């Protein structure tokens, strides 16, 4: 007996008694220790990091299906010169889109039985490779119930084993003769997709610009392992669902600006008819030139529809400026009174005054504004906002997706030595953490600011929150969207009004916060990593939010490798600006790779022509040794569990806790 260990055991007796219900005797505890020790020596699982998806659902889904090009790489490695390039391309397309590719193959393949036989063996080989770094238990959990036993048998038996060749051959033959080949192929392709990515990190901004944010969220509802660090556009939709009218207006304005009503109407059932009716009545004589929607490739509409959208766009923008100012007036601590732009307009002259300087306006038609009380909603605007607010509140699917955001999301995450957040950490001019007033009289900075902000966001959806606190939290969504010290914005202003109405482009400038000015400094990044208690030699900050101008030579790897900015412009609206169509950062057992994507055409083209996203890979940082589970956060958890199980063994062996019968 060891007195020191005995005291530790006595201290932990409550927990050890609970643990003994799961591991009832020495044999069970010992078996679990052996199992956990073995897992520690498996290769680290592959993590994928994506940012700023902005509703580009087809490109996102394709990248998830092809594991950012990793499946194509594995097919090339496995089959090398065994298969022609067209055969490898067809195999990859089958893995990505099994249902659609099967239909195409069956319409042209003269000997489908032979094709099934050859293809199933190829798929088993790929599946065996992607599953090799996981325990049998983990692989088993990823298998579909209908084919779990069959796939597991095929994964662990080889047709070149003379003793088992007939066994494997008969399994495959029986799958085909029983008419189950299609279902089996679909099932094993889905397993390959799932095992190719161990964990997915989304660094914010699922919403806005593209038309498929709701499709992305539907995909994530069934994804095996993922997290999200909320972006400013996600916060906007969360605020809209919570009832923040300014957020509702911003959501609608951005949707109209990019001619993207699919997410609103088809995705969430938001009724836009009242807005269209109001816009035609109030702005029927206005050409609304400044509000014509941005039309991206393959997004064409006739002139009549375009004019209607422009009028709806202007109508909701004017209401937005009013609603924002009403919220800002309730919060003088935000220091945003200067954004009361409607009061700066001289409606007689058609000019606007900013800091005493007169600026000419592009237009001066404001039929719903009372010059004596410019921020007051007209009766018609108030009625419209009530209808829109109700529509956002009662959307069942939006509620489900916001709940998903809350369940899987937060303001920041630390994972395996990497600090993940969407945009910034507010900093002072000297690079120290800046204190931000979250609630009147309460200031926070750095890690505590991010944690408290996350708690406030959740309180907006918590019925147990006191009414005053909940009202403040709902208002705060606007500050997070456009407040100068918001960790999701961090700029001097959001120049929406200026861009729409003022001719002088110098007024459009949005001064970036100190984080964006100083983040290239390795010392600043180390200071932030220290503040968030990120340990290890190879630690990093990983961000999105600000598009990287790859076409102009900007490097996404900054601060001597300490910072990785992975917003490469998934959104088609940014393709010209960035010169590419998004990044994936891949962190596998041998280190970091940055995958740069070219624009994606469509899933239909991928199936029909075998087109894939063209991706180029840049090695960012390679490890001196192959990283194991033991080197990860999961490894630290497992070592703690092993230590506790050793304590339980000690308690069993010394009679402190009695073993239970098997």
For the biggest β-sheet, the strand order reads 7-3-2-1-15-16-17
Please identify the oligomeric state.
single chain
Largest sheet: 7 strands, mixed
Percent strand: 5-15%
Query: What is the 3D shape?
Result: globular
Rounded to an integer in angstroms, the radius of gyration calculated over CA atoms is 29 Å
What number is the mean pLDDT?
92
Helical stretch tally: 28
Computed structural class: alpha/beta
Q: Please tally the β strands and state the result.
A: 17
Give an overview of the whole structure:
With 662 residues, the chain is an alpha/beta fold. Helix content is 50%, strand content 10%. The protein contains 28 helices and 17 strands. The strands form 4 sheets. Strands 7-3-2-1-15-16-17 form a 7-stranded mixed β-sheet. The protein has a 5-stranded mixed β-sheet with strand order 8-9-12-14-13, covered by helices on one side. Strands 4-5-6 form a 3-stranded antiparallel β-sheet, with no helix packed on it. Helix 6 (85-96) packs across helix 7 and helix 14 packs across helix 20 (396-408). The two termini are 27 Å apart. The model has no long low-confidence stretch (mean pLDDT 92).
Summarize the structure.
By secondary structure, this protein is an alpha/beta fold. The protein contains 28 helices and 17 strands. 50% of the residues lie in helices and 10% in strands.
């Amino acid at each position: 007996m060891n007195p020191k260990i005995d005291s530790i055991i006595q201290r932990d007796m409550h927990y050890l008694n609970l643990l003994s219900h799961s591991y009832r005797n020495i044999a069970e505890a010992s078996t679990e220790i052996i199992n956990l020790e073995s897992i520690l020596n498996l290769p680290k699982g592959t993590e994928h990091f994506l940012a700023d998806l902005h509703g580009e659902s087809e490109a996102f889904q394709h990248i998830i299906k092809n594991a950012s090009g990793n499946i194509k790489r594995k097919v090339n490695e496995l089959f090398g010169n065994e298969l022609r390039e067209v055969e490898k391309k067809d195999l990859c397309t089958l893995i990505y889109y099994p249902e659609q590719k099967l239909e195409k193959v069956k319409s042209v393949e003269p000997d489908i039985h032979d094709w099934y036989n050859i293809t199933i063996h190829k798929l088993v080989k790929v599946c065996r490779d992607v599953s090799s770094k996981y325990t049998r238990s983990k692989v088993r959990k990823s298998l579909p119930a209908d084919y779990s036993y069959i796939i597991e048998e095929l994964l662990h038996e080889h047709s070149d084993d003379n003793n088992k060749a007939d066994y494997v051959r008969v399994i495959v033959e029986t799958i085909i003769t029983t008419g189950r080949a299609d279902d089996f192929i679909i099932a094993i392709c889905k397993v390959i997709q799932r095992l190719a990515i161990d964990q997915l990190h989304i660094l914010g901004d699922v919403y806005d610009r593209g038309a498929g944010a709701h499709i992305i969220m539907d995909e994530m509802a069934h994804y095996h392992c993922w997290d999200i660090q909320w972006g400013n556009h996600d916060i906007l939709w969360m605020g809209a669902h919570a009832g923040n009218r300014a957020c509702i207006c911003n959501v609608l304005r951005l949707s109209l600006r990019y001619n993207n009503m699919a997410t609103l109407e088809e995705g969430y059932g938001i009724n836009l008819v009242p807005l269209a009716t109001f816009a035609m009545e109030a702005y029927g004589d206005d050409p609304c030139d400044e509000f014509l929607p941005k039309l991206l490739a393959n997004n064409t509409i006739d002139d009549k529809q375009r004019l209607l959208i422009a009028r709806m766009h202007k109508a909701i923008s004017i209401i937005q400026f009013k609603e924002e100012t009403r919220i800002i007036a309730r919060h003088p601590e935000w220091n945003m009174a200067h954004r009361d732009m409607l009061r700066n307009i001289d409606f007689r002259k058609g000019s606007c005054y900013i800091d005493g300087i007169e600026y000419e306006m592009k237009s001066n038609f404001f039929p719903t504004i009372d010059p004596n009380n410019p921020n007051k909603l007209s009766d018609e605007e108030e009625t419209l906002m009530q209808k829109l607010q109700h529509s956002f509140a009662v959307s069942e699917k939006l509620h489900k997706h916001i709940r998903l955001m809350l369940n899987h999301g937060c303001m920041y995450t630390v994972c395996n030595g990497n600090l993940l957040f969407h945009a910034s950490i507010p900093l002072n001019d000297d690079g120290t953490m800046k204190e931000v007033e979250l609630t009147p009289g309460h200031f926070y900075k750095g890690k505590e600011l991010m944690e408290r902000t996350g708690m406030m966001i959740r309180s907006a959806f918590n019925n147990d929150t006191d009414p005053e606190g909940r009202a403040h939290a709902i208002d705060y969504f606007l500050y997070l969207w456009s407040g100068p010290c918001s960790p999701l914005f961090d700029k001097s202003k959001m120049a929406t009004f200026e861009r729409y109405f003022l001719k002088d482009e110098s007024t459009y400038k949005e001064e970036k916060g100190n984080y964006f000015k100083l983040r290239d400094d390795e010392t600043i990044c180390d200071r932030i990593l220290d503040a968030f208690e990120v340990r290890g030699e190879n630690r990093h900050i990983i961000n999105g939010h600000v598009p990287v101008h790859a076409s102009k030579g900007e490097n996404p790897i900054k601060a001597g490798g300490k910072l990785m900015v992975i917003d490469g412009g998934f959104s088609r609206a940014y393709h010209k600006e960035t010169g590419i169509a998004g990044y994936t950062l891949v962190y596998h057992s041998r280190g970091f790779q940055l995958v740069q994507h070219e624009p994606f055409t469509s899933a239909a083209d991928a199936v029909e022509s075998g087109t894939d996203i063209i991706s180029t890979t840049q090695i960012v940082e390679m490890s001196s040794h192959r990283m194991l589970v033991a080197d990860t956060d999961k490894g630290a958890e497992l070592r703690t569990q092993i230590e506790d199980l050793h304590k339980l063994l000690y308690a069993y062996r010394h009679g402190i806790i009695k073993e239970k019968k098997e």
